[in-house]
Amino acid sequence: MAIVGLGALTLALALSHAGAWWWVLDLLAHFHAIYLLLAMLVAIGLAALRWRRLALWAVGLVVWQAALVLPLYSFSTTTPDPSRPRLRVVSYNMLYGNPQLASAARHILALEPDVVVLLETSAAQLEIFTAALPGWHAVSRPRADPFGIAVLTREAPIRATVIEPGPAWMPAIELELELGGRPVALMAVHPPPPVSAANTRTRDELLRHVSRWAAAHEGPTLVMGDLNATPWSSALAEILDEGPLRSTQSFGLQGTWPASLGGLALPIDHALYSGSLHPVARTIEPAFGSDHRMLFVELELR
Fold it and tell me: For a surface tag, which of 22, 140, 168, 273 has the fewest beta carbons within 10 Å of its beta carbon?
């Protein structure tokens, strides 16, 4: 039985790297942190039973998964400089129909962000946030479905527009902010969940569009949103390896969905950056009735 279990786990881990070939296999790539924990528990159990060869097999799986998970803990050794301009951003997939948004809005206000990205936004839900953040500037496309989107900024953006880089039911927002006298381009985006071949193809195409968008800007860029992809998903791994964007996820796993899984939640809400921006803080905040915990990042302009 132990051999069968280890064989099944090994097969799942191997197939998780073949997501570019078939969207179903790409779903296996989301769970490497869980695979790591499972492999560790199996290795400990087999070692306790003195099944040495099987324990070594399990240890090999631990090493394999650790090589994928531990790079998320590559904390920067660069000392932040308080004199440099800072950009503080919150991204929150609020969950369409969430009844606890007033509490969420108060919490976000206490974080003192410069930008708030809201996903799954209806007109009624957006009103709660605009009331909580009076005087802020909003560019939005609220919808009566899970693909409404809004960006609220403390200062007026240089420019802002709603775009449709994918299907018409999936808007995104582009805007440009001034930070330290320099323009910073920001895109807020929410691709569809990869629950079918068509959805996965749309998600992957949008992620590649985001990478091309960042490459087309000479200055710093920031991409925020629920990307419905973990760092190990084939398309996201591709653009992080080959494009200009880098992930702020160097402060640990910091999973956001589903919120009920706590420390084992999947890291699918992201902040990607390029150019002279550099992350100095990244935290996961409470969910306040959503199935996603909110993401808070602070970046320094260098």
Answer: 168
